[in-house]
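FIELD: query
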Amino acid sequence: MFDDTDPILGRVREVALALPDATEVVAHGRPTFRCGKMFGNYGGSVKGSKVRHDQCILFIPDESERQALEEDPRFFLPAYLGPYGWLGLLLDEATDWDEVGELLDASYRQIAPKRSIAKLDAR
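FIELD: result
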């Protein structure tokens, strides 16, 4: 369900795996990024449809930013993870990678152990 040589996946890996103690695990045919629990998922589909986005990142948004993100057409409610608070962001050549970093940072901070967050804050 993914191409290991996909350059967009390569950029997502750089961002996600730069977080302390982050790992990558393939689950359900997709790369997932974890620090104990999952904080990112590469690729997904839109909840309630058969629309699949192979180049997207699924993440847990900061609640204070959720409404604004939901109003942006680049974001979508993903199947399976959407009901648990996750959102998806479509990725392409014009992606703002600083934004991806901020979104994954916020998602990571919601699931990572305190010691991992302390490592991140010490940078």
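FIELD: remark
The mean pLDDT is 96.
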